[in-house]
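Severity: low
Component: inverse-folding endpoint
Summary: output formatting inconsistent between runs
Steps to reproduce: submit the following structure tokens with default settings.
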């Protein structure tokens, strides 16, 4: 590619500038990181990082001939990892972390994050070419038992093939407007309606809708992944359910209770229209590991301190409307 100046997006939020765009690249750092990775990075990848060391591309979607957990006809990325930084934002740690902690197959270098916050990734695949040659680009789908979908024969082809989100399906602004209308006026599921009626705070229904509106404004649509606002929505649903019903074990909650609250409610009502169970299971596992949710005589419950924290976080959202 001759002109690389338009590759990076100029529309970054503050957290993206802080966490994703790393300090300027140096030749010494490239040599060091390649040695730690055990792979030679594509020349074009390094050239892009010389312009900006990681961040959000201007075009974020790549077409596919088969469906993935993200869409029927494309995959999406939220960032390209720079070199350096901590494990959540830069190579080599970001790639090695996905293999050692998330169980991704060791096929090469995981270089691009996706909107699922770790549940699918884009990687440089060196299996066929060896560590010093030009790798192909693949999508690896944790939600599909780490299914690998071939995307492009090399990184340059991948970059040339990236398209704007508008190239796929509905207009983003129209989708956002439709989802805002739906979460502000759509009927709650009978199960969620009953939980809200039983909760002592009569403003909880409005607070729930306010949190959903923040999620739509952040993402452009109503979906829950592993970001902080999604986590707060998971917290709130569990708080409402456990206030009225005993939660005997995590599996029955994730598989039997959770879907009927928001995920698989009437698609025209207050609903995300679907969900990935692993996100909810990961949230519950983390809450228990951190001691926020504990086993009691009444079943799994938030600790009093954690319950107060959920309500305080919800109040912050409510007051910032």
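Observed output (run 2 of 3):
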């Amino acid at each position: 590619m001759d002109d690389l100046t338009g590759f990076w997006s100029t529309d970054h939020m503050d957290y993206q500038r802080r966490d994703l765009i790393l300090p300027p690249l140096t030749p010494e750092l490239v040599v060091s990181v390649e040695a730690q990775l055990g792979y030679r990075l594509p020349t074009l990848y390094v050239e892009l990082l010389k312009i900006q060391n990681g961040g959000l591309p201007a075009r974020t979607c790549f077409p596919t001939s088969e469906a993935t957990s993200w869409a029927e006809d494309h995959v999406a990325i939220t960032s390209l990892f720079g070199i350096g930084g901590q494990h959540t934002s830069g190579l080599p740690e970001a790639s090695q972390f996905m293999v050692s902690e998330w169980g991704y197959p060791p096929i090469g270098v995981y270089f691009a994050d996706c909107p699922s916050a770790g549940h699918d990734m884009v990687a440089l695949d060196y299996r066929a070419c060896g560590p010093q040659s030009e790798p192909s680009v693949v999508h690896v789908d944790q939600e599909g038992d780490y299914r690998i979908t071939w995307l492009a024969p090399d990184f340059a082809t991948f970059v040339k093939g990236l398209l704007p989100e508008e190239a796929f399906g509905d207009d983003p602004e129209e989708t956002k407007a439709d989802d805002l209308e739906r979460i502000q006026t759509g009927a709650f599921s009978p199960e969620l309606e009953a939980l809200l009626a039983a909760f002592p705070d009569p403003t909880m229904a409005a607070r729930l809708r306010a949190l959903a509106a923040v999620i739509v404004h952040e993402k452009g649509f109503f979906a829950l992944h592993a970001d902080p606002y999604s986590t707060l929505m998971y917290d709130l649903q569990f708080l409402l359910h456990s206030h009225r019903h005993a939660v005997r074990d995590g599996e029955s909650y994730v598989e039997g209770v959770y879907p009927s609250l928001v995920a698989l409610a009437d698609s025209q009502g207050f609903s995300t229209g679907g969900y990935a169970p692993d996100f909810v299971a990961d949230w519950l596992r983390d809450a228990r590991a951190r001691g926020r949710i504990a086993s009691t005589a009444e079943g799994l419950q938030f600790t009093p301190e954690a319950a107060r924290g959920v309500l305080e976080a919800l109040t912050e959202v409510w007051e910032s409307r």
